[in-house]
Amino acid sequence: MSFEEFVARSHAAGALVVQPRMGFGDPTAMRAGLAATRSARAVTVGTLTLDSYTRVRDTASAEHALRNGLPLNGYPIVNHPPEVTRGMLAGLMDADFPVQVRHGSARPADIFRAMIAAGLHATEGGPVSYCLPYSRTPLDEAVRNWAFCTDLLLAAEPEGGRPHVETFGGCMMGQLCPPSELVALSVLEALFFYRRGLRSISVSYAQQTNMEQDQEAVSALRGLCAELLPEATWHVVIYAYMGLFPRTEVGALSLLAGAAELAVTTGSERLIVKTTAEAHRIPTVAENVAALEHAHLAARATIHRATVAADNQVYREAAALVDAVLNCHEDLGRALVIAFKRGLLDVPFCLHPDNAGQARSFLDAEGRLGWSELGSLPLRGVVEQRRQAALTSSTLMSALSHVQSTHDALAFGDHETVAIGGQA
Amino acid sequence: MTERLHDLHSDRADRADEVLAGGRGTVIVSSMASDSHTWNLVYLELLVGELGFDVVNLGACAPDELLEYECLSRRPVMLVLSSVNGHGYQDGLRVIQRLRGCRPLRRMPVVLGGKLGTGGALTQEQTGQLLLAGFDAVFDDQQGSGSFRRFAAALPSPAGVLPMPAEGAGA
Fold first, then answer.
1. Do B38 and A133 touch (CB under 8 A)?
2. Which of B38, B66, B84, B93 to mutate to test the interface with A (most CBs of A within 10 A)?
3. How confident is the model over A50-80, as pLDDT tens digits?
4. Pairwise CA distance, residues A326 & A324, whole Å
5. Å from B91 to nearest chain A CA?
6. Which of B113, B11, B18, B110 is nearest to B67 (CA)?
7. Inter-chain CB proximity B46 and A351 less than 8 Å
8. A282, exposed or middle or buried, with CB in 10 Å at 0-12, 13-18, 19+?
9. 8 Å CB contact of B60 and A136
10. What mean pLDDT, rounded, does chain A reach?
11. Interface of B with A in 68-87 (CB under 8 A)
């Protein structure tokens, strides 16, 4: 059974699929991590997170680390021969436990080849989301690379099932990107894959700062996918908060439970978890398993569904952004490059030279993300630009830490909150 | 890997002008080659700017040769390297050895900060090795910004650092 079939079957059975981010340089450690994911008390899929040398195609440094026993922050799939990776997965990856490759590369051809050679058919990324926030690769080069790799995956007819790609566009920068632009980028990357022939897709959305706004965003994402991907099988994957994570266990678990609630209330099929170690270091296998099980229980405890207007504010903004990009060029890859050049897409705080850097976001008093500067975004008349005081390192830090401190306060400040609020 | 250099920063300000204008000189803020994180860099750019320096932010995944080139051509009063992907120890060692091997950069203040190891904070021995290899200071994530601010405040004025032979400088 393929990745998409496993997710669909689980969803039909009422279970949220939960998934870690997990990668180790050593195949034995990687196998142990996958085995622990599989046997967690939750409905899980496995992850091969690749190391960051592989992501920037520095196989020499990965090799150096392997040879000298230095720790890697992921599995170097290009350095390990395909038979080593197959052996690592043997008897573990099957119909009940599909495995996805997660990497973060703007130029992933070697990764795709290694993945295909090892019999893996599910991965994630995108021409914008793996270029702008994370690399110095020019956007047009990333677009060409991702087009090539999509074709490579389609031509390979992988043995495990239809090729599956998840967009990473719903995560841009992890935090402080207004949800409408996350939705637009996730949809545009999905459409990029779709137009190249891919029919098994998942679209991501990363939990942000306000539950209602996030629910509107997922509803918008679903609406736009239904319009634009008529012949694809697609599902929604929620990422637990990708910004500064709470430092306390109570805070981290509360935020993770919130992500599970967001997933279930919006009918999303899959959730990628974060752990209690996130604020401090790369999590251990045990911490990942604990996070998977916590998310599973939080999802099971959520029975209500969100009621969100289909034509909500996030939808209106996202639709305007998507339309503006589609109008740039009939080739979507070219359209994306042109849109960024014109500032029709502009990711706040993104340092990449191909990002205009004119648009700015802010957090309002309710914790909703809004636009303080629109730059050239095609949103005039759709959204109000609410200018803010000049950004300083400390105001930036408080915006970046808003979610962290809100959830950590649950661990430290319960009594204080009660005392100030005057209600027991 | 330096093909994007021209796009990165068009403000190739003349250093002499900056000194005359009374600025504290230029600080380069950068990642290292394998690290794709940038929020740390966005924050540091604001923080270092507030301390009175002009800031050049090299962004994500700065290759070793780009770091060397930018330091040679801009002669910053300090290079601030930030790493949060767990490879800071090995990447830092490699980069500082390269920079200190380049004669004009031998006395340039270089600091490293962030989440530097895959297993959390570095051991004292690892920190010692980074300092021995040539870093002027190593700041662990847990320390907060106070010790970095103090270090930056104690930097000599640009006039004391600038008169170095311009051998090998690109700009």
1. yes
2. B38
3. 998 999 899 999 999 999 998 899 999 999 9
4. 6
5. 9
6. B110
7. no
8. buried
9. yes
10. 94
11. 85-87
Residue to substitute from B11, B61, B84, B126, interface A, most A β-carbons within 10 A: B61
Q: What is the residue range of B14's domain? A: 5-161
Give me the mean pLDDT over the A240-248 stretch: 96
Which of A393, A395, A397, A401 to probe the B interface (max B CBs under 10 A)?
A: A393
First to last CA, chain A: 52
Statement: residue A160 has pLDDT above 80: no
Does B104 fall in a domain?
Answer: yes
Q: Of A39, A15, A14, A34, whose CA–CA distance to A24 is shortest?
A: A34
Contact (Cβ atoms closer than 8 angstroms) between residue A18 and residue A242: no
Torsion of CA B149, B150, B156, B157, to 10 degrees: 50
Q: Which of residues 24-53 of B touch A (CB under 8 A)?
A: 33-36, 38-39, 41-43, 46-47, 50
Which CATH number belongs to the domain containing residue B92 in this structure? 3.40.50.280
Structural domain total, chain B: 1
CA distance A49 to A168: 14
User: Which domains are assigned to chain A?
Assistant: 3-300 (3.20.20.240)
Cα dihedral: B29, B58, B14, A356 (round 10): -120
Note the residue count of chain A: 424
pTM value is 0.89
Name which of A136, A281, A351 is nearest B120 (Cβ-Cβ). Answer: A281
- Whether residue A156 contacts residue A123, with contact meaning beta carbons closer than 8 Å, is answered with no
Q: Are B35 and A393 inside 8 Å of each other by CB? A: no
In this structure, is residue B171 part of a structural domain? no
Beta strands A360-363 and A369-373: pairing type? antiparallel
Q: CB distance from B118 to chain A under 8 Å?
A: yes
Using a CB–CB cutoff of 8 Å, tell me whether A398 touches chain B: no
Per-residue tokens: B103? 């004669």
Mean pLDDT by 10 residues, chain B (171 residues): 35 38 84 92 95 95 96 97 91 97 97 84 92 96 85 78 42 35
Q: Does residue B38 lie in a domain region?
A: yes
Q: Give contacts of B60 with chain A, Cβ < 8 Å.
A: 133-136, 351-352
Tell me, yes or no, whether B168 lies in a domain. no
Return the pLDDT at A422.
32
